[in-house]
Design goal:
286 residues; alpha/beta; Rossmann fold; 2 domains; two-stranded parallel ribbon; 9 strands; disordered N terminus
Length: 286
């Protein structure tokens, strides 16, 4: 009988301890679980805040223009075809997108004087020539070698015959395009600017344009415009030789194509389409 009483006493003590432990555990869980939930909720709010801050940050586009101003063999003045700069410039900046303008030499970026003639003066060109701030930027471009891909969300090259002379062999330009492309950022070029893709390589060593749909100023447009003596090579031919699937619309009509993050436009009239595709790509990346 004594043994049973002792055993019952021990058993009761054990049960009491277990009960106390359960109570303590329950209390502990009651205290801890809300804290865990609160922390998770706080982390969720922090993540949402970061996302909203990132959305609020203006996107940044690097615009690369030429420093080349005269064709030695003919003496003709050249540079950037201003419509191809002005149209995207205003479409981008009107959307709150920040742009930085750079050129191989920095400083004054030459503008093809022909592109400023009345017959080529679109609304964006007229706006540019009435915009002292925009002209100031073109007159004080940064040096291409001084910029870094990590600081921008997309890169854009306006055309003109100038880019065909000083960008295809430019090591910094080649590196920037490769970096932007490999990081999944939009790479856009219009008219003669796809000449800058000539020596750009994909990760596997092939030409970047190989197997991709690419548009640019066509042989027929160059011939019809009687400007074959102003270019170092025929742009359409070069792209095809590098394995591109060259595509085009009607001569002088707007036409642009996007293959992945590579965006290209055929001629000056295509600058607006190219800019719209840049904006759409940046919107998707938000």
């Amino acid at each position: 009988m004594t043994y049973l009483l002792v055993s019952r006493g021990i058993l009761t003590a054990i049960l009491n301890k277990i009960t106390n432990m359960k109570i303590k555990t329950t209390l502990l869980l009651a205290l801890v679980l809300p804290l865990i939930a609160l922390q998770a909720n706080a982390q969720s709010h922090t993540n949402l805040l970061k996302q909203n801050i990132n959305k609020m940050k203006p996107k940044k586009v690097l615009i690369v223009v030429t420093s080349f101003d005269q064709i030695k063999s003919t003496g003709k003045k050249t540079g950037t075809w201003i419509e191809e700069f002005a149209t995207p410039y205003y479409l981008l900046t009107d959307q709150g997108i920040e742009v930085t303008i750079v050129s191989p030499k920095g400083g004054v970026a030459p503008i093809d004087p022909k592109s400023a003639l009345p017959e080529y003066s679109t609304a964006s060109v007229k706006r540019f020539y009435g915009d002292a701030a925009a002209q100031e930027k073109m007159n004080h471009t940064l040096v291409l070698n001084d910029v870094h891909a990590k600081d921008y969300d997309a890169i854009f090259y306006p055309g003109g015959h100038g880019p065909m002379w000083d960008l295809p062999e430019n090591a910094k330009s080649i590196d920037l395009i490769e970096t932007f492309y490999n990081e999944g950022k939009p790479v856009a070029l219009v008219c003669h600017a796809p000449a800058a893709l000539k020596n750009v390589k994909a990760k596997n060593g092939d030409p970047l344009v190989k197997g991709k749909q690419v548009s640019a100023y066509s042989n027929s447009e160059e011939t019809a415009g009687k400007t074959t003596d102003e270019v170092p090579f025929m742009l359409e031919d070069m792209l095809k030789e590098n394995g591109a699937n060259y595509v085009k619309g009607e001569d002088w009509h707007p036409y642009a194509v996007q293959d992945g993050q590579l965006i290209t436009g055929q001629n000056p009239a295509s600058a607006e389409l190219v800019a719209q595709k840049i904006i759409a790509a940046l919107t998707v990346k938000k």
